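Sample 1 of the test manifest.
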Amino acid sequence: MAGPLITRTVDETRRAVAIARTQGKRIGLVPTMGALHAGHVSLIRAARAETGFVAVSIFVNPTQFGPNEDLARYPRPFEKDVEICTAENVDLVFHPTPEIMYSPSFKTFVEVGDLQNVLCGASRPGHFRGVATVVLKLFNIVQPDVAYFGQKDAQQARILMQMATDLDLPVEIEVCPIVREPDGLALSSRNVYLDAAQRANATALIRTLQALRERIDAGERSAEPLLRLARAMLDATPGARIDYVAIVDFDSLQPMDRLKGRVLLALAVYFGATRLIDNVLNDIK
Ligand code: AMP
């Protein structure tokens, strides 16, 4: 099977996409940091089903990592990633170096107002500034008609939708459902950091979200008892350390006392040095 074209520079990427466009193809982009798993594959398949030319970017973006985060040890199994892209019939893999994306004179960053400072942004200062900046660059390099993101990173999806609206970006943003392991753990490239005990206990995230969901389905509309239940469940989980437990309005990402409208239940929990996130989005009358 012929593999995807692998590009490393902006020019070669633009040239390949321009040819596809002259062939009348719609362009789909799946931005990733590599270490591809079934969650990424679900985005690639959505792109494959809906567009004629599928580009996957693989770039571990330094500007979205804090100084004490896992930039250096983030997994980079590039050959395996290309095999997955080949199996999924991807047309182009854009795999730039940090130097190509950020020249020594780089100065411009995108900030998406107060959406970037709450939830994950509160514990990872500068993270969403790095994300928004690299995604805008990827949009400008590939110029996709549709870009695919996962609900797994709900705040990221919300921020990128806001950026696309505010900056009149000619791209449709599609958010795909969370892909999970059979026991409910959301797939993540960071799950490989977990040892056996941490991996077993990491199901606490989905179990907690499900417990909240059940209370909501049973009629609970007050945030406080739900937050208390979530904290109690996570505090009782061996090895778990809560970063945040939040019930927010999905539009503003601000906490809500009474649940109404599009409500995001979101968790971030450390197991050792590994930070896991998960969420569920509820539509409440
Ligand atoms: P990453 O490589 O972690 O930057 O993720 C690239 C894209 O894949 C992002 O849009 C993520 O939200 C998405 N993604 C990561 N994990 C999952 C998952 N378990 N299910 C669905 N999408 C995911």
